[in-house]
Amino acid sequence: MVLALILGSLSAVVWGIASTVFALPSRFIGITRTVLWVGIGGASAGGVAALTLEGPPRVAADDLGWLAASAGGILVASYTFSLLLSRSDVSLATPIVACDGAMAALAFIAAGDRLPVGVAAGLALMVLGLVITLRRPVPALGVSALRRFSAPVTVLVSLLSAGGYATMLFASAHVEGLSPIWTVVFARGAVTLIALVACLATRVVLAPGSNDQNLWMALGPVT
Q: What predicted TM-score, i.e. pTM, was given to this entire model?
């Protein structure tokens, strides 16, 4: 339990830092390129760590479906979260997206798992904090922010992003033949490959984005 609290606290700190750091590239180089370069960094670092600590991966056929689901979850979450960071009130979006763990816990409960009392209490506090966050007034957007999402749209896209992360967590937990590190590396690597194909299709990988912040335009080349 203590280890879980420590890891959870560390994850929260990393989450906050990542939200702050990823906001700038999402706004200035575009969604797809942000997903690409974040994926390259994350998959590379994770791959080196996994090889060093655990050696080469061994993928079982039974795990392929769960790995695909995990990659799909990260794909949706990465694009929608980058979209939120570029076009929404980040202080409203990030607390909602951070409820991905609660969504994953509900999925496990629906699948038949039992929820400890302490975890249930923590989830209740999380939901209470979310309600308080959503009740606060959102500053009106000026003329210079016409491209920004309204509060309702921000909430909807944030829930979609949280659902993507929750799908990744739920699917990754069912991968039995790979370690958690390798599971994340494979899922993140698949998303990075998709982003690379999208960037190559538009012939823009390194240059700053102009007005390519629209999610569907970013996904268009690979659909």
A: 0.74
Backbone phi and psi for residue 151, each to the nearest 5 degrees, phi listed first: -60, -45
Instruction: Give the angle subtended at the CA of 114 by the CAs of 110 and 118, to the nearest 5°.
Output: 120
75/70 Cα distance (integer angstroms)? 9
CB 70 within 8 A of CB 77: no
Q: How far apart are CA 57 and CA 199, in angstroms?
A: 28
The tokens for 5 are: 């609290």
Cβ atoms of 78 and 112 within 8 Å: the answer is: no
Query: What does the alpha-carbon distance between residue 186 and residue 189 come to, in Å, rounded to a whole number?
Result: 5
pLDDT digits (tens, 9 = 90+) for 137-154: 544 444 344 467 888 899
- Cα 61 to its chain centre, rounded Å, is 26
Cβ–Cβ contacts within 10 Å for residue 36, how many? 25
Do residues 222 and 197 touch, judged by C-beta distance below 8 A? yes
Assigned token pair, 73:
């979850």
- pLDDT tens for each residue of 192-209: 999 999 888 877 665 554
Outline where 111-205 has alpha helix (H). Answer: 117-135, 151-173, 180-201
Cα–Cα–Cα angle for 182, 112, 157, nearest 5°? 65
**Span 106-129, pLDDT tens digits:** 888 888 877 677 666 766 776 676
For the four alpha carbons of 73, 79, 80 and 82, in that order, the dihedral sign comes to positive
Q: What is the DSSP track for 26-72?
A: HHHT-HHHHHHHHHHHHHHHHHHHHHHHH-S----GGGHHHHHHHHH
Q: Which residue type occupies 133?
A: T
